[in-house]
Specification:
Elements lengths: L3 H16 L9 E3 L8 E3 L1 H13 L4 H10 L7 E7 L3 E6 L1 H14 L10 E5 L14 H16 L3 E6 L7 H12 L13 H14 L1 H15 L3 H25 L4 E2 L2 H4 L3 H10 L4 E3 L2 E4 L8 E4 L7 H15 L4 E7 L3 H13 L9 E7 L2 E2 L16 H22 L8 H21 L7 E2 L2 H4 L7 H18 L3 H6 L1 H4 L5 H10 L2 H11 L3 H20 L8 H21 L9
Parallel strand pairs: 5-6, 5-11, 6-7, 11-12, 13-14
Antiparallel strand pairs: 1-2, 2-4, 3-4, 8-9, 9-10
Helix pairs in contact: 1-3, 2-3, 4-20, 6-7, 6-8, 7-8, 8-9, 12-13, 14-15, 17-23, 20-22, 20-23, 22-23
Length: 581
């Protein structure tokens, strides 16, 4: 499957250059919002007239549009081009092109054009050891997973990195509390199921007991110095947290490889020495600082007390990823508030020669916070952050209740057993949470609402999953072997009806959506496309009888192509659709 927008861009740019010698403007191509205005629109005539009208003797933008139309190169993509309004070029795809590409998709699968394979490192999720994952980790985890899935689908070599907070001063107090509560922990490791409560207990003691605080500080020094007892305690707590994190990742079907802060700690001294020798770091108030031109606040590579900070770790991290791992592209997924910090890190990497655009690319994928209905940060009644495990449990429970209510009211019919219904509710519930997050513009905050997430009539995962299940059911009801139809697709496919053509043309835009996401990493593009696709399918289903019609075979193939694209799109979002609901 080719990216149609890029192909049209090339075609119309060539036409502009042919019509207006010496003009190097790139064509402006957009999709239309109304099928009667074509599939795409070229909006270049207005800008061409404004910039070059007098030079080329153009009377108005429509004259520029006509010149572009007359100079279109021969191609099999464009069917016809109409001039509309003040000078818009409405572009209708060639019906034979649509049919050929649809048949290719059916017979060969959804394939993107092969580009340069890149080594991409995606840093996401990043919970803290000894603390539970909460709603604040939701966005980074599911946005990061979806971006990884899309990159992998495009053929890139992707490292999914979990930069957990497994190092720092908090471990001094945790180790001290462990030593006091379980003196024999070396020979009899305790079963600390509630490490979060354990953390709160140690923090309370740290804030109120001077002797305990002193012991905690001593443990930090010992841990950083490699003391065996402290490192054993640290490893014990890390393993407990990892086990709890993995339960969440398994439920969300997210795969990650842990490389926490501790991994980079041994790299920092050597890196600081190198930067000092290159005079990129200088002393300021006793701290070793990396100053960035035109930035007031530096990165602190070494604190005045000789300790390391987040700045130190992230400098070592980006060095390791770009220089040791030879990554072509590094993506950091955190809340938008961390952008000023990462801006400094990226600029430092450029100054040090590690980041060499355009050979290398680095991105910060920032996102807003999840709020309650009152537009304040989502918290429990006690003021704590909502635990992610509780949120997922409620999503499943509410989903199951909604499904049972619809079945009991006769609104939906179901072939599922009680056990199957429970499993389906889990997938629908988790999918609803993911989709509702991913359909947002990630740079903005949004209000968390189970009611809107589980809405069967709006732009939700539930709506999409029911749409998918209905499409899948048509093939079963027709009792036709779809594989046999696919073999003869070139002879069977007929897209004469406007609703058939509109649906098929929409399907062919899938690669355009994926390539656009590679550019700006805005995942709501894919959600918007899938919702539009579901709407186009509903129009087709309303206007075009499938089973029993003389064009049954052709329309079953169009249903199958829709199912394929919808399945691929939902899977890229980390959502598992169901054949039956």
């Amino acid at each position: 499957m080719e990216a149609i927008t890029q192909s049209l861009l090339n075609i119309f740019t060539t036409a502009i250059q042919n019509a207006f010698p010496g003009v190097q403007d790139t064509a402006i191509i957009a999709t239309t919002t109304n099928d009667s205005f074509g599939d795409f629109q070229c909006n270049s005539p207005m800008s061409i007239y404004k910039s070059y009208g007098k030079h080329f003797g153009l009377s108005n933008p429509r004259a520029a549009a006509e010149a572009i139309r007359q100079n279109l190169p021969v191609n099999d993509l464009v069917g016809k081009v109409d001039i509309a309004g003040p000078g818009f070029l409405n572009v209708f795809l060639n019906p034979n092109f649509i049919k050929t590409k649809l048949v290719d998709m059916l017979q060969n699968g959804i394939r993107l054009p092969v580009g340069e394979k890149k080594r991409v490192i995606v840093d996401f999720s990043s919970p803290n050891i000894a603390k539970e994952m909460h709603v604040g980790h939701l966005r980074s985890t599911i946005i990061g997973d979806a971006i990884c899935r899309i990159l992998e689908f495009c053929g890139h070599d992707v490292d999914r990195v979990n930069h957990v907070g497994d190092w720092g001063t908090q471990f001094g107090m945790l180790i001290a509390h462990l030593q006091d509560q379980f003196p024999d922990f070396l020979t009899n490791p305790p079963d600390l199921k509630d490490l979060c409560t354990f953390y709160k207990e140690s923090k309370k003691r740290f804030d109120s007991e001077p002797e305990f605080k002193s012991k905690a500080h001593q443990n930090v020094v010992k841990l950083q110095g490699g003391d065996e007892v402290c490192r054993t305690a640290w490893k014990l707590m890390c393993e407990i947290s990892r086990s709890e994190f993995q339960k969440i990742y398994d439920r969300l079907q997210v795969v990650l490889e842990e490389k926490g802060e501790s991994f980079y700690n041994p790299l920092i001294p050597r890196l600081v020495k190198e930067l000092e020798e290159r005079e990129l770091i200088r002393l300021d108030g006793g701290a070793k600082c990396f100053f960035i031109p035109d930035q007031k606040i530096p990165l602190i590579a070494v604190k005045s007390d000789g300790g390391f900070s987040y700045d130190s770790t992230d400098l070592a991290g980006i060095y390791y990823r770009l220089m040791d791992q030879r990554a072509d592209w590094v993506i950091y997924i955190t809340d938008a508030g961390q952008w000023p910090h990462f801006e400094l890190v990226f600029e430092a990497a450029k100054l040090a020669g590690w980041h060499r655009p355009p050979q290398t690319r680095v991105d910060h994928v920032g996102f807003g916070v999840v709020t309650g209905e009152d537009r304040k940060k989502l918290k429990t009644r006690s003021g704590d952050a909502v635990r992610l495990v509780d949120l997922l449990d409620e999503a499943k429970d509410r989903s199951l209740k909604e499904m049972k209510d619809r079945i009991a009211s006769g609104e939906e019919k179901s072939e599922l057993t009680e056990e199957q219904l429970s499993m389906a509710a889990e997938k629908v519930g988790y999918g609803a949470v993911k989709y509702y997050d991913l359909k947002q513009n990630r740079t903005t905050s949004y209000a968390f609402s189970f009611d809107r997430m589980l809405d069967v009539r709006g732009n939700s995962a539930v709506y999409m999953m029911y749409a998918y299940a209905r499409i899948a059911s048509i093939g079963r009801k027709a009792n036709v072997e779809i594989g046999g139809l696919i073999q003869d697709a070139a002879q069977l496919v007929n897209l004469d009806d406007p609703a058939e053509r509109a649906l098929a043309a929409t399907l062919l835009r899938f690669p355009d959506i994926i390539f656009a996401i590679l550019g700006d990493l805005m995942l709501n593009r894919l959600c918007d496309f899938l919702y539009e696709l579901a709407g186009k399918y509903n129009q087709f289903h309303h206007n075009c009888m499938v089973i029993g019609h003389e064009k049954q075979s052709s329309r079953l193939l169009l249903c199958e192509a829709t199912r394929m694209v919808m399945l691929q799109g939902l899977q890229l979002l980390g959502i598992t659709p169901l054949e039956r609901l």
